[in-house]
Fold this protein.
Amino acid sequence: MRRSISVLATALACAIGLAQTPIPLEFPPNATSVSADQLKARLTDRVYGARMSDGKDWRYEWKSNGYAFINISNGYSDSGKCRVEDGKICVELTKTGSSCSDVRLLGDVLYLKRASNGEVIELKPK
């Protein structure tokens, strides 16, 4: 009985620790803004992946015709118009709606701050 309580207490502590994992809200130090031309060159006709803090994997695809496609590992998908501005990616998605997300560059890595919750994610080429 004592061992069962100890195992349960350990499992509960781990669950609480996972539930309190903070969402990254700040860009990495030394990350710099990206010009619209740089963003366009990095995104056009490319696919990127990202893992959210909730464990879901996202797939982003940007097309040269100004459309973006998003697929999430839970089965959700959306698409719509996309444009870049200095330091921003802006979308007008069919289901999700319109938003602009800040983007920064550190080395060769793009970081995007999600407009919906402020979470900073790393965009990895696929």
Q: What stands out?
A: Helices lie at 2-19, 36-43. The chain has one domain: 25-125.
